[in-house]
Amino acid sequence: MTVLDPKLFLVSIFNAAVAAADPERTIRDHLPAKPKGRTIVIGAGKGSAQMAAAFEKVWDAPIEGLVVTRYGYGATCERIEIIEAAHPVPDAAGLEASRRLLAKVQGLTADDLVVALISGGGSALLPSPAGSLTLADEIAVNEALLASGAPIAAMNTIRKHLSTIKGGRLAAAAWPARVVSLIVSDIPGDNPAMVASGPTVPDTGSRADALASISAYGMKLPASVMAHINSPAADAPSPDDERFLRNEVHLIASAGVSLEAAAAEAKRQGVEAVILSDAIEGEAREVGGVHAAIAREVATRNRPFSRPVLILSGGETTVTLRAKGKGGRNSEFLLAFAIGINGVDGINALAADTDGIDGSEDNAGAFADASTVSRMRAAGVDAKAMLAGNNAWTAFNAVDDLFVPGPTGTNVNDLRAILIR
């Protein structure tokens, strides 16, 4: 094993995972046939601007379009307009973007083509409250979802029953044009209808499913929201609706593909790699504790994997907010992990969101090793107290172990890389 600097090694693993989801390469491999009529590009998500720029490069015919991405995640396009809006809590800019996207696909014909560039984050970027609901209602719902600890699939099933654009409704609005969706998945299990709450891809999730999740996770939603979701007006289009029959859906990047690329990079550098799963869900601190137990077992007993080894996993954990600290699911995962490996030498870890942002701060995640907890203590920070207060960002910031790569232009969810030397 020739790893000289564990942090640099882990960053190279992250970079390999992100490169495997590079929009230009993946879009080039999934270009639709050119239509007789117009080509309209629409999109939403934290990687949608980079996807739009990539599409412009490889599409050698006239196009026009509009996509929405998170503030600071824009890209330079000549023919596709980029709008920026708020994430993870919606704002008025996102509301206007939703209105304009729906308007963009009005009046099309069967000879026209709509290309939808969809990536994670689109749920918050596309507020479009149904019925008598308001943007304030949608913001309240989003805040309740983020604090609930519910898995992303449950969140998005609820969201699509409160919207005029999610749950396939954007594609339905484009009918009779053909809609081809190019999707970068940030969803455990890679169900394309769950990415960004499926604006162009319907699924079978029902109002009953949404209500069951609201109850199961104890969500307190506004009375107006509950009234709407209890009414037939909230029903989303069915996948067998004739408006979707000519459409195509292509998954062009996913956590699984990126984890394979990360493993290949590790092996190129002389370190064997194992992938636990690309679809791990659950409470971030609990998942962190389990990963720590596996790392300790390898470090102290050389099982179930032989040292040196890189343990990889992906998916999307959740955080049930117990306090109003600063952090995200990756930093919370890693703080629990750091507590679990405290004092066990030979372990270095990185947990980060592949879009470059973990939660609402400027970091993608953080680094941890056997000395993390003791270094925090020396800096006047109690790791366990920080974890109890959902304050992982503050804890890692105190020891200068935040990972801040900036926006990456893609989003295939979380990457957890644990090097055991």
Automatic annotation (TrEMBL):
GO terms for molecular function: glycerate kinase activity. GO terms for cellular component: cytoplasm. It comes from the Bacteria. This is Glycerate kinase. It comes from Mesorhizobium ciceri. Keywords: Kinase, Transferase. Residues 10-229 form the MOFRL-associated domain. Residues 310-414 form the MOFRL domain.
